[in-house]
Amino acid sequence: MPKPTAGPEIERLIQLLAKVPGLGPRSARRAALHLIKKKEQLFFPLSAAMAEAAEKVKVCTRCGNVDTSDPCTICTDPRREDATLIVVEDVSDLWALERASAMNVRYHVLGGTLSPLDGVGPDDLNIRSLVSRVAEGGVSEIILAVNATVEGQTTAHYITDQLSDFEVKVTRLAHGVPVGGELDYLDEGTLAAALKSRTAFD
Amino acid sequence: MPKPTAGPEIERLIQLLAKVPGLGPRSARRAALHLIKKKEQLFFPLSAAMAEAAEKVKVCTRCGNVDTSDPCTICTDPRREDATLIVVEDVSDLWALERASAMNVRYHVLGGTLSPLDGVGPDDLNIRSLVSRVAEGGVSEIILAVNATVEGQTTAHYITDQLSDFEVKVTRLAHGVPVGGELDYLDEGTLAAALKSRTAFD
Ligand SMILES: [Zn+2]
Ligand SMILES: [Zn+2]
To answer: Which residues belong to zinc fingers classed as C4-type (chains A, B) (predicted)?
Structure first.
């Protein structure tokens, strides 16, 4: 655009909104204009909510979840059972499983998958802290809810090896997750069914 | 969701993001998580940009555009010619035309269209201020860049009547705009062509 259409503050807002997943450059303009028009109902509240969340968000030192408290809401929830840990690659998978499932359990977020070609080794993931949690005792089942990709399955095998000295059952999600698919994109029914018919990992 | 997954600040952020056009409830979760992960690069800057824009944004009292200054950037731009005014329904149309066109002119934003059934009459739109701008003199052409809808065309006829006492040429966008279509959704080539071959309004 050769000539300025709106003030620099609005142009900058549009540029940053365009970087939000789900919005492109054109949607960012529409979004900005909608916010401007709904100044009291949406723009001010969203602006305040962003400032507050950006300020308060932290990574849970126990499980790797993101939240505004550390330990996180899930780790401190007294109604969840400690005996089952669901291991996920990413926080988005944790959120997807929470939406899909009625299991009142706890999680462990790896923060990725083993990927030697990308230089991601065991120490780059939250695997050591997972082993520590199991070593503390009280965990009887680990559900490996990793993506059905090569990297996900490699990571699952590695974790199973690391846990072989412990009295813990290691399971994985039922085949029902499409091969090569990512948990995060699945519908909740598929996810819930896959979780229910999970099988022993061998 | 029966049990809390994340702190109330994050849940509130997701709820408000879901109201932004282009994002639904699920995209809002992905967007929130992306923001959290890109805290320094995106979350803080976007939060600051929103606060600043929300604080500073205002409606131009001369043309009806939204900007962070009043009069707006377009009204105060000395490189634009005063002789041509493009009349649009909405600020989004102004932005679309600016992106599409090389015309260095000024605008007038009506803020809607005449719609007796919805109780929108001439005094609910910025029509009186348009007539005043023409009465000031210096405007030789009014381009009615309203949507090709019944309401848009009704509004165009009304404005043409109101301007019949002035020495001003009233034109409209070339037929090239699909009938029933909204300017805002058109590609820039179509909009530029329609603007170039505009015809006398009669
Ligand atoms: Zn936690
Ligand atoms: Zn203006």
So the answer is: 60-75
What beta strand segments (E) does A83-139 contain? Answer: 84-88, 106-109
φ/ψ of A66, rounded to 5, equals -105, 140
Closest-CA residue in chain A for B44?
A54
Contact criterion met (CB below 8 Å) for A27 and B21: yes
Q: Is residue A164 within 8 angstroms of chain B, CB to CB?
A: no
pTM over 0.90: no
CB B94 within 8 A of CB B65: yes
Same domain, A52 and A70: no
- Does the residue B61 lie in any domain? no
Q: pLDDT digit of tens for each residue in chain B (202 aa)?
A: 455 677 889 999 999 999 999 998 889 999 999 999 999 999 999 999 999 999 999 999 999 999 999 999 999 999 999 999 999 999 988 988 888 877 889 999 999 999 989 999 999 999 999 999 999 999 999 999 998 788 998 999 999 999 999 999 999 887 667 767 777 777 777 777 777 767 666 6
Do A131 and A75 belong to one domain?
Answer: yes
B22 contacts A31? CB cut-off 8 A = yes
Q: What residues of chain B, 55 to 84, have a C-beta less than 8 Å from chain A? A: 56-57, 65-69, 72-74, 77, 79
Q: In chain B, which residues have their Cβ closer than 8 Å to the Cβ of A36?
A: 53, 57, 66, 91
Number of domains forming the structure of chain A: 2
Our CA-based measurement puts residue A202 at a distance from the nearest CA of chain B, in whole angstroms, of 31
Nearest-CB residue to A67 (from B7, B34, B52) = B7
Instruction: Supply the ipTM of this predicted assembly.
Output: 0.78
Its domain, for residue A45, covers: 8-56
Rounded alpha-carbon distances, angstroms, from residue B10 to A57, A73, A122, A152, B95: 8, 11, 30, 28, 32
User: Does B76 lie in the same domain as B44?
Assistant: no
CATH of residue A123's domain is: 3.40.1360.10
